[in-house]
Amino acid sequence: MDQSFSPKNLRRIWDLEARRGRDRLDLFPEVRRAYETARDAKRHARAVRKSGVQFSGPSKHHPDVLARETRQAADELLELSLTRTSENLIRSVETDTFTWGLTPGRVLHGKRQIYTIGATPEIFFADKQIQRVLASTLPNRPLGRQSVVAGLVRTIDNSLPKIVVRVDVKRFYDNIDHGLLRSRLDRSSLSPSCHRLIDKLLAEMEAVTNRRRGIPAGVGMSAKLAELYIAQADRALRDSRGTLYFARYVDDIILVRGEEQPGSVKPDAVKEEIEAELRKLDLSLNPKKIVCSQLKNRSLDKIDFLGYEIKYQGRRGLIVGLTKERQKTIQSRLDRAFNAWDRADDNNHGRRSLLLDRVRFLTGNTRLSHNKRNALVGVYFSNPHLTDMDSLKRLDRHLKRRALQSSLPPGLDEKVARLSFVNGFQKRTIHRWSMQRMKRLKGAWNV
Fold first, then answer.
1. Looking at the chain, which terminus has fewer C-beta neighbours within 10 angstroms, N or C?
2. 184-194 pLDDT, tens digit each
3. Candidates 3.30.70, 3.30.230, 1.10.3470, 3.40.50; CATH matching 145-322
């Protein structure tokens, strides 16, 4: 693929971001103003047409003409801005003056350090282009969460002899060795410019941490660098003898090994095989997150994986529910929604609809209107593999208890009582909100 930072490639990135519903006009404030002017001109032209009043001025001043001209001017300004960004980026790489501006940011869940990079257009497009280039060099495209779980479910939903080993790579991003990573990059088909910019990022990481290990979580290209780094281990484990299914989702690994006869494969041997491959990359397993399950008496003990609790029980077949941790997260969001209601001023007339929409959001499904792929998320679409409704019934009971604690007024209590996680899942109830409304709804979770 074309790995350059040309205006054409920057435009390709811009269009891809737009198709994904991501507004990047903040990168170019003058372009945003131009498109806002074009939008206003289009609205004015539409209003004139609807009014039925005949325009009598010069044709060059006709509202439709002005609307087209202002839109064309905005498009041309965008192209000019992308060209200037391309020129600045290429010049800074060639003169070795480019910097990522890597800075430690927030600490996620009190454990994981998140990093940020500069907010200039040059840095944004450099990161995005390197992500595209790295993705093209990977031997396999990483699977999404639902695809990984779907493969696991298909593999274990039978009574054939097997063992399942689920492990976690200990501090995966933090322990990636820069020397080994650079050797992988040297053997790849990266262009000198891309290679130089990745080297810059690793050098800035070394300066910040005083370690020649680790890639910055929170920076877009880090996910692709991690995939490139561990691809060798993935391939070896996927192709190992007797493997029925292997998948890795970031640092979570699941491996299903078939047995010619019950007991012929030892779980510890499979775990040690995984450890051996990781040692080649100077990585290790998290000893607190190692789970081995073996099919016994037509049953397979539960496995918590990517938010799902999965087990196989003979005649009952496959049973898939939500993990306790996932349930606690949803319960916490319910609690925060009701806490926001409890704190709100009684004279705030919007608080009724806000509470109701927050509960609807949690118990139902949402079509992301700002996403041109019309992606769906929610109780069903984020957990489509559920077969056991017990976890959702527990959430329904928690919702009822929490609603009673808040002493909701007549009318609102009845509307909340009609909302249900089980119904939202089974009926696949879909809601749609504007981006502004979504931000208001999610604001309660961040308190």
1. C
2. 999 999 999 99
3. 3.30.70
